Amino acid sequence: MGRRFDTISFLSDLGLVDESVGVVKAIVRDLAPHATVIDLTHQVPRFDVRAGSLALARSIGYVPSGVVMAVVDSGRRRPIAIEVAGGEGVLIGPDNGLLPSAVAMAGGAERCVVLSSVQHQLVSAGLVLSARDVFAPAAAHLCNGADIAELGEPVDPDSLLPGVVPLPREAADGGVHAEVLWVDHFGNCQLNVGLDDVAPWGVHDGQQVQVVAGEVNRVARRAPHGGVLGAGTVGLVVDAFGLLALTLDRRSAADELMLSPTDQVTLGPLVEHTPAPASPVAMRPRR
Amino acid sequence: MGRRFDTISFLSDLGLVDESVGVVKAIVRDLAPHATVIDLTHQVPRFDVRAGSLALARSIGYVPSGVVMAVVDSGRRRPIAIEVAGGEGVLIGPDNGLLPSAVAMAGGAERCVVLSSVQHQLVSAGLVLSARDVFAPAAAHLCNGADIAELGEPVDPDSLLPGVVPLPREAADGGVHAEVLWVDHFGNCQLNVGLDDVAPWGVHDGQQVQVVAGEVNRVARRAPHGGVLGAGTVGLVVDAFGLLALTLDRRSAADELMLSPTDQVTLGPLVEHTPAPASPVAMRPRR
Amino acid sequence: MGRRFDTISFLSDLGLVDESVGVVKAIVRDLAPHATVIDLTHQVPRFDVRAGSLALARSIGYVPSGVVMAVVDSGRRRPIAIEVAGGEGVLIGPDNGLLPSAVAMAGGAERCVVLSSVQHQLVSAGLVLSARDVFAPAAAHLCNGADIAELGEPVDPDSLLPGVVPLPREAADGGVHAEVLWVDHFGNCQLNVGLDDVAPWGVHDGQQVQVVAGEVNRVARRAPHGGVLGAGTVGLVVDAFGLLALTLDRRSAADELMLSPTDQVTLGPLVEHTPAPASPVAMRPRR
């Protein structure tokens, strides 16, 4: 057994307030001292498989070859390992829909196993903590050269719980019903639509777009980035992941539009005679 | 002087909001570039030696051989280093009760010194920041092969401030007065009692237990883990550290029972005719 | 091209809630696997160049030789790299005033370039994320031996946006108008004055000093550190960076005095007959 991998990219909902993440890294250090752990994030909201899955999908194109360990709402479904990219990478995590999007982006599942080998696990004094007792030692053993097949029983990739990707729907007036996938640290609201989805009614820079989200009815302007928008103008940009996002210059669009992940947003061509919306944008003369 | 250790496990109340932790790691990198720092946690509540001591005790069985640096409410008492496990590890931190529990779990103190050697410290422009000026360079020097005796004057381990471990007490009705040791990231409430402490009145799965904590009077059910509990049912489980913990399925037991660390909780055999407690569990027909 | 640097010290306003920081470290790991990233802090308040600049200045004396990557409110001004200390270090970040204080403390700028070489950048699917697409690969290329001149066009250091350092001003009564530079994790309030600035009216330990900040009018006592102060007594100490700071023993001086960074504070000699200030200190008999 040689050193197969030397990097473990680690994402979880374990938080940083207690020592849970630190203990996982201590175990890896103990079992596979040559391996480096890259913390993607540990502040996925508790139990939020959807948010974790999206964060992992946004990251997967940037992580080095090696192990990807993702732990969100684990312990309720069986722990699995999925080999991808001809063995260049192995994703480990619970079989709860957390991994499939990232696996798909990495080219699809090759071999899969359930992490059932108890000799590759730690013994708990009580409840099994899957991150500590199952995933950390599995990641370390993979780095030490263990083949995925040593870690447990093979399982058919098609039997795994699929991920859920929300799809946009056409709206009556030619618009599109979208969903907020993610609100980033700066309050930008990433939607589940790309430029193609709004192509029918126009996509050129400067174009105005009607944005309806719950009680909020606003006009947004297509722009290359938030920096060209005036104060208070909502922008619709192609974000750093190729998706449309609502943004404000140096302010939180999520706060301004009262948006959170999973909220529904309808984008559509500008309605010329919108009845006075409570919006600072509409208060100005139209250009 | 060879390379004695290559891992420093680091726990503190320094937080992650400013650069304090980063500067400690920069100093270690500068002085002992071969050493890796494992962050256990830096969000121990400010000055909370008890919480830090417990987090360290939960971690110590998992950290690799090397240096353990613990910094909570430091700077008020002398900085010390304690050798354990035949020299396999050295714990450094303030002599304020933070280290003793972990030291005991590592087999007890062997040699101890006060970190008094100024040539192993950094010079501050003003106040001494013990993490930056004393502990970081001490950890680095230990990794570089310094013997603990070089770092300062020997001190008798028996003269160190002991840790405080809250013990459970028997309650009048055969129950036990317990204390909340820790509330984890998911709201599980770890108590300072194990199964043995409740053995007299029963411990089998499914058994109901009376839980009284301040104004809260609830029935909890002994269960192997939270996943088998119905919604809203409080569970009493043996947690991942071998202690009893109050839990709810995917919700915070701490929020539900209004519990925080150091709160007192009385566990006892079920009182059959509890006078209508303000509890959603009691509102339902008993099974 | 050899391995020029092996450490990247990284400070940002990217937060730890999402995967932005993790992706930067994944990219560095992928491109320059031998390099170690030291996280100084990622919780600089969003867009707060002043706070980031001060945190970087407090850190710079402790970071190892190598790359310093600072990313606060980036993407609005051109990305730059500044060589310092005869090539011992390179600071990279936006040309927005974030870097100059640290550069000055490192001995001043030597060669500077704008990070304009697209072959040293990543290609985004949309918006350029400067941390991910520009700074992370630049840092990795520097660690891999790239010369700063390969990364883009030279630029005159004098053309860069200077940092802003708030200077204290003399007050009418011999006192000094100071500014809160920083509130640390424990609530200590660092001011932009040193002992020299208050020398005219006395600096000896135990001396009382009048502190006026907005509505707050308090007496502080010069002390070597907070530990010697009685409960509720505000102390004026020389902090760990050589600057005067307001402190309380185990409590937050910022909370007590309602101070935040950029707030103005006037220090002056004690006014003997202060008209009843709303201060618990003044309620006691004077010593």
Structure, described:
Three copies of one chain form a homotrimer. By secondary structure, chain A is of the alpha+beta class. Chain A has five helices and 14 strands. Chain A has helices spanning 20-31, 49-59, 100-105, 130-143, 253-257, and strands at residues 7-12, 36-41, 66-71, 79-84, 89-94, 112-114, 169-170, 176-183, 189-191, 208-213, 216-222, 234-238, 244-247, 264-269. Chain A has a seven-stranded mixed β-barrel with strand order 8-9-13-12-11-10-14. A six-stranded mixed sheet of chain A has the order 2-1-3-5-4-6, sandwiched between helices. In chain A, strand 8 and strand 9 (189-191) form a beta hairpin. In chain A, helix 1 (20-31) runs parallel beside helix 4 (130-143). The model of chain A is unreliable at 276-287 (pLDDT under 50). Chain B binds chain C through residues 14-23, 25-27, 29-30, 33, 46-47, 73, 75-76, 124-129, 132-133, and chain C through 6-7, 9, 11, 16, 36, 38-43, 55, 58-59, 62-64, 182, 184-186, 224-225, 227, 237-243, 250.
